[in-house]
Amino acid sequence: MTIPLPRPHGRPPAIRARLPRDLHPVAWWVWALGLAAAASFSTNPLTLLLIIAVAWLVVVARRPEHPWSRSFRIYLWMAAAVVAIRVGFRIVFPGTPTGQVLLPLPEVPLPGWMTGIQLLGPVTSDALVAGLYDGLRLAAIIVCVGAANALANPKRLLKSLPPALYEIGTALVVAVTIVPQLADSVRRVRAAQRLRGGAAGRVARLRRFLVPVLEDALERSLALAAGMDTRGYGRAPGESAAQRRVTGGLLLGALIGIAVGVYAVLDRTAPRYLALPMLVGGTALGVAGMWSAGRRVARTRYRPDRWRIPELLTAATGLVVAVATYRIGVGDLTLAHPALDVAPTMSLELLLALLLGLAPAVLTPPPARPWRSASRAHEADELEVAA
Fold first, then answer.
1. What does R_g of the chain's alpha carbons equal in angstroms?
2. Percentage of the chain with pLDDT > 90?
3. Does residue 314 sit within a domain?
4. Which residues are within 8 A (CB) of 329 and not within 5 positions of it... i.e. 6 or more apart?
5. pTM: predicted TM-score of the whole model, two decimal places
6. In a domain, 1, yes or no
């Protein structure tokens, strides 16, 4: 007679860590904000292009199969448009001409009360390079935010916020998911138009395209508002007037203390007792106010997301990239902000620090796949819209 051995419960940690699952959304946002901070510290085009490439590669490797994950392409187009607009702004308002003249445009005379503003005129190489550098920096920040939107689940992000920030977090989640929802609406409407056919003119196609997209966005907004109202959003039953006054006083004192403390830290002529002590006191009042405000928000969380080793490594990677880029830029200003008439360079330390941002593409588990394939999901959506 063979006695079966008891099977071990669960899986080994190494195997469990590599199972397909969605990473904690806050970890993705910390990583993306770290890359965005690194982009804001530099105008070096090599650094900015490398940050864009790092964000793009991580999105390609770890993007889940959800509607909001298809919005990254829209952010790329927005980034390209920002660069083009910034360069065009330098052409229209060139400012003081420096460098080699590339396009000798005539200057438009302006009235005397607009002194200091130059409309058109000679387009120089320095003006175009400066516009390109500024546009690339803003484009890199946009791409990093788009990467966070494509990788993080907005509903799980709202669920992970502390109770005191629930109302503000809901507004922020609604704001940052406008572009992903718009991308999903565009895909659904395009699928329906391909199945139905119709007018071939550009104006007619544009009208048939924009109206359903706007209608779909309005219906989703109304559904969200109805769901929030049904669940009692924004209501605080059982809260007395004294509790509201205490919470408001704590938050107001925190705002004043932090504002005075930050000003005193930045201004060396201010008294030192207004610097760090006020900043610490304001932060303490802010924590107390958030705790008091969180007590009145009655909500439950089913299976809350937990931070594991991949989440910690992802968030730490973004912070390390931001700190390393800042320290390297402070030590070598010509590397972080190259001159307009000199070719930009890249150091080995900066290259390694930026390549560290690719770690989440390897250290994190693959994203969870839906129970049905993407092709079947697309077919079902197309048939639903066309019905």
1. 26
2. 19
3. yes
4. 41, 42, 335, 336, 337
5. 0.69
6. no
